[in-house]
Amino acid sequence: MTAENAQQATSKEVMVELRNVNKWYGDFHVLKNINLKVSKGERIIICGPSGCGKSTLIRCMNRLEEHQEGEIIVSGITLDDDLKHIDRVRRDIGMVFQQFNLFPHLTVLENCCLAPIWVQKQSRKDAEAIAMKYLERVQIADQAKKFPGQLSGGQQQRVAIARSLCMNPSIMLFDEPTSALDPEMIKEVLDVMVDLAREGMTMLCVTHEMGFAKTVANRVLFMDAGEIIEENEPNEFFNNPQSDRTKLFLSQIL
Amino acid sequence: MTVHITTPTADKAPPASSVGVMGWLRKNLFSSATNSIFTLIGLVLIYKIVPPALNWAFFTADWVGSTKGDCTSEGACWVFVIVRIKQFLFGFYPPSEYWRVITSFSLVGVLVAWLLIERTPKKGLVAAFTVFCYPIIAYFLFYGGSFGLPVVETHKWGGLMLTLILATIGMFCALPIGIILALGRRSSMPIAKTMSIIFIEFWRGVPLITVLFMSSVMLPIFMPETWQFDKLLRALIGIIFFQSAYMAEVVRGGLQAIPRGQYEAAEALGLSYWKTTFFIILPQALKMVIPGIVNTFIALFKDTTLVLIIGLFDLLAVVQAAFADPKWLGFSVEGYVFVASVYWVSCFSMSRYSQHLEKKLNTGHAR
Fold first, then answer.
1. Counted domains in chain B
2. What's the Cα-to-Cα distance from A53 to each of A48, A206, A224, A225, rounded to whole Å?
């Protein structure tokens, strides 16, 4: 009850809630008792050493991975085996991948229009208009007729962000969006993400870009061995880490 | 710190020995002693084989006439083929009904050309017509029995016409069935998966000749009288099942080459299994295995000759039957060369088209 009262007091809508989530890959316990609440408009950065379960955590939120124990509630819908629930959650949650995962046989514009047309049943004309709007926002509208293979990594990732935005999601998940990019292309992608954050998008982002974390995050979560070890607002997190594991991790990456 | 270059160096032309005709010859034909020897042996062989073959087939061949006696020169006697061409093309189809076969093949020719040539309008409509309406039209044209057309029993069908019917229906059905089997084999549903594996492994494991024998000899023995159906249809089903098993494995190869991320991106966008398969996975997978698909098509096209062992007179069987004509004894070489050229031209066209298709569909993602 106290949790609910607290929620009403801040009058913030909860977008994602995880309660005692556990997940195993075979015998490997990859997520351990994860509890997390994400309110509307919050920007959360998740970091931690490789293999700590941070990607798995956000991939559970749109059911790319299945959790075995606990509850995940996204936009009021509980994720379970019901395919309709999964469908509704996926319509409301966009995802950007480390490897972009654009569809190489479709043009940039077709990449953006496919899901709006076939999932949201928009007309081709409307879908294209919306796609062009988002492609302009990520400053790549002039490449709309090209195929992904003809673009640089940074351009591809911006297209991937636009493709997700075309579904008009209320939550965006980013799974190491800049890790596969050449250094000179990281900034163009981060700039788009900063813009998105300024417009109030609810974001969960797995990243090691600490500058980005300091600019946009409300909260930074540090994970290790499948657990959330520490969470704090960014300045406090970086300047005053509490646990030894966090200190060790920060000393390695900064 | 030192600066080495202040102005960019201008490009120079490559050395003359590495470009042009001489450069090409040196690089490709005479790069080493062994290479030069092989080049010379090759030239000698070409000189020994090609001119006599051309002489036999064209320059000293007989083209006009109506009997064996008209073949007087030492080259090939194409009169044999020309005199019997109608039988080679139509088998025992009644000559008064030839127009039906010609109409049907012309129609499908136009439809296919319409679909293959770029920038023709209304492709979707034409494709739908080809898939759903044309088979019905073709059936009534070939078999008759309606619209005042007399029935022509399938045992009268033969020659190139039968070969093309077997091959086109075979390809047309083997590809979709193969795709479904490949998807089934990769499915997470145990029943669909098991059924697909059993089907594929069974049909891939038996020789086509056995399949054809079973369909024409065994089935009539084991099946009740009322269940009997046309021999041609039985052979056709045998060919389709046999080739679709091969096709399934070709397509599965393509499906396995699709990165996991493509499925995940489609899932994350909310696309269902079938929409993902149809819009994302199959277009990429099929594009990758075009060489394999065409390979199977070519094998299927040539395997149709095996129907001669169950008494269907395809092109090869009709030509072989003509060898036995006492008026035309001794022209089997011409007959076989004719059959071989028809098959070669058809298969080579398929191969060329597939190469064109690969180039056209390349969107630059293969790095």
1. 1
2. 8, 10, 7, 7
